[in-house]
Amino acid sequence: MSILGLQITHIIFDLDGLLLDSETIYTQVNTELMKSYDREYTMELKTKTTGMKMDDAIQTMLEHEHLVGTVNLEEYREKYLDLLSKHLPESRLLPGAMQLAKHFAKHKIPTAICSGSNTFEFDAKMKNQKELSDLIPLHVLSGDDPHVKKGKPEPDGFLETMRRFSVKPESAENVLVFEDSINGVYAALAAGMHVVMVPDLRYSSPSEKCRDKITLVLNSLEEFKPEITERGRLLMAVMKSVLKITHVIFDLDGLLVDTEVIFSKVNQCLLSKYNKEFTSHLRGLVTGMPKKAAVTYILEHEKLSGKVDVDEYCRKYDEMAEEMLPKCSLMPGALKLIRHLKAHNIPMAICTGSTKKEFELKTQYHKELLDLISLRVLSGDDPAVKRGKPAPDPFLVTMARFEEKPEKAGNVLVFEDATNGVYAAIAAGMHVVMVPDLTYMKIPDELQNKINLILRSLEDFKPESIGLPAYDRDNSE
């Protein structure tokens, strides 16, 4: 257990997407406006503009979408403000925000809000948040504050906030910033402050440039554990628990090989014949299940049980999948990680809901993957696996089949992309890294604090962060 003690005396919070769930409102408004100009408000564009002053963000969007000269900034702003005035008062507190604000107020830790909002936006968002405003009375709104020349990612907003505390911090290093956006993180680091990032992984994650400089990355403010000293100063202990991981188990579909898109196409094609749709929600519910269990669930969910035979659906499914599955490619970062673990003699296995036939189709052009991971448990037709994911059976059978057995389930790390797989790994008593496709999957609240890491891609995985050997500097795929 390594502990880094920081002497933190002052706290600065961002607002949107950190204390208040207002980012969804901004997304809805910009999506509606961009659509009126035959443009799309993409996650890339959201990432680029989050945290900026309003006019800077609008100008960036117009330039990015080649609308400068076609759409007037003032025209866009007027429509933008009109929509915001209707929806921003609907902003709700995010989990853990009020608890943390009350905690700091109780212990007399000076706190402030530093936001890219202007006064109009801030007042609209805080209309129904009087208690939060009372708990954090210092507000620096760089959207129209004349003393803040440049918005995030520049440090001006945070430096101005530090100057306005009635009791000044001794230095910027005594200030801890809470941020959700990458622009805000850059601004805090440029100001010389420590930063806790609570990113929305759909559009924001710590970049390579600043990942090692962020003090802590959390899934939610609820996860933050402050420790207060007797003198009323915040002593934050950032603890990196070094887990003893000796064995690794990988899921297959959507994690190592890009097959989930194929499954969606096949199911959509089959369900469309019955005037049904294979929705993202339904996809999230069945991902990770063995095929027959998934088909049974789909038919029940769509009220087709008794009208459509499960075995007949499976037969048609197999016919279509057989043509498409051999074309699936490896997911980014998969081969690099597996080569690395092999080089360090970490025992590995694949545990999948596939049948033997499906597995062979998916992997027939991925010989190196098969050579590197010789142990595979295919719960789709393995007689020893009585129940598929989300039950723990597949992972427990896999653990029992390692030639060199783990001392206990707590020494096993599972990589999963599906909620059902995560439930299975946790039920088996194992640690889990989740690499979800957030376009169709929402991670249940009950799992948030039980998952060791949530990543956008296997490329983002740092083995040393969870007790495994670090990549060599010259390591490449």
Automatic annotation (TrEMBL):
Gene3D superfamilies cross-referenced by the UniProt entry: HAD superfamily/HAD-like, Putative phosphatase, domain 2
Q: Which Pfam families match?
A: HAD_2
Q: What is this protein called?
A: HAD-superfamily hydrolase
**GO MF annotations in UniProt:** phosphatase activity
NCBIfam families this protein is in? HAD-SF-IA-v3
Name the SUPFAM superfamilies for this protein: HAD-like
